[in-house]
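Hi everyone,

Forwarding the result from last night's run.
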Amino acid sequence: MWKHKTITKLQQAPHSELLRSLYPFRHCDDRALGLLAQQSELLQAPSDCVIFERRKEAGDLYFVVDGTVKLVDATGESRLIAGGSILSHLPLNPAAHCSDQAIVTDTATMIRLDRKEAERIAGRILTSTAGEESPAPQEKLGEEIYLAVYQALQAGSLELPSMPSTGVRIARHLEDPSADSDSIARIVQMDPALTARLIQVANSPAFKGRSRIESCRHAITRLGQSTTRDLVISFVLKGIFRSREPDLQKRMEAVWRHSTKVAAISFALARRIPDLDAGQAMLAGLMHDIGVIPVLIGAERHPALAQNRVMLDQLVKMLRADCGAMMLQKWGFGEEFIDVARHADDWQYDSGGEPGYSDVVIIAQMHSHIGTPQMAEIPRIDTVPAFRKMMLGEVGPSLSLQVIEEAREEIGAMQQLLQ
C-alpha cells in the first residue's frame, strides 16, 4: 500500500547475492536464490511514503536496502530501520500484527517479494499471516518464539547476555595508553584461575619461548597486550554458555566444543596469512556461534520446544546470525567481528578486498566439519570465495589440508587450552 507518493520500480532486479544476505534466504542454494531474484522487485520510495499498514498487504515482504524506514506500533512508539544495518536484513513485516505502519523517512530503496511465492521457493519461513491454515501446535510454538525474538530484535529489546565483568575490566584497561604488563597483571591476578591459564598458554607450543614462564607479568610480556586481551575474553566467555535445562546445557556444551575447534583452526590459519592477527582470529572463531546462546536461553521457557530437536535446530539456524551480530554490537565489537557472526555459515560470502577474519572463520568451519555428518552439507572448499582469497587458494585444497595437518599439534594444544 503505497500512499500519496510516486513509487519508482527500478529496472534492475535484486541480485541473488543481495538476497542471500537477507535473513530468511541466507541458507538457500543458488537455484532458489535465482528464482527469488526473478520474483522480487527493487523499488524506490520517497520520504513520507506509507509502505504498509496493519493487516493490509500482508502478502508481501519488504526489506530496506538503502535509506531509512520508520515502524510505528499501535501505541504510537516508533523505531527506525536503516539500510545496511543489522535489522535491514530482516523483513519489515514478519507478520500482519508486527507494526501498524511503515513510513519512509529518507528516500529508500527496497526489495518487495510476494510472501507465498518466497515460501514456496525458499521453504517455509517462520511467519504467520491472517487467514492461513492453522499450523500444528509445536510448529505454532516455533512461530511464536521466532516472532517474539524477531520483534525484540527490531525494537532493540532482546535480552542478550552481558560480557563477563572480568573481560570488560581488562579490555577497558588495555585501552589505556599507559597500561603496561605490571598494571595488567595486577588486574588479571585478581582471578587465580585466569592467571594460571595465561601462564599455561605462554608455555604452550603456540607461544613457547626459550625459557619457561612462571609469572603473570612475564606471561603478558610474552603474549603481548593484544593477545592477552583476546585470551582473557576467550577464557571468560565459557561462563555464558550455560542453561538451567539439562538438554539445553548439552547443546550449549556442544556449541562451545565446536567453537573452540573453529577458534583453534582460525588461530593456526591466521598465523600463515599476512596482516592478520592470530589472537583476533582465535577470538572471532570462538564467537562465531555466540548468537545460539539467546535462542537456547529463550527455549528454556518452552519445554516442548526444548525437547523438539528438529524445531529447535530450525530456530537456531534462522536466528543465530542476527542474534550474534546484535550481541557483538552490544559488546562494542567492530564491524569485522559482527560480519563473522553474520556470515560464518554463509559459504558463498565474499567480504571483498584482502582476506579478513570472516574468511578465516569460514575456512576454519569447513575444516572443522571434515569427517563429520555436516561435511555432506558444505560445498567443495575450492569453490568458496574465502578460500580463493586466502593464500591457501593459490595452492589448492590438498595443500590446505596439509597446512592443517602440519599445524595439528598447535591446533590441538590451543583447543585444549580453550576448553
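Strands lie at 8-9, 41-45, 50-53, 60-72, 78-82, 101-114.

Cheers,
N.
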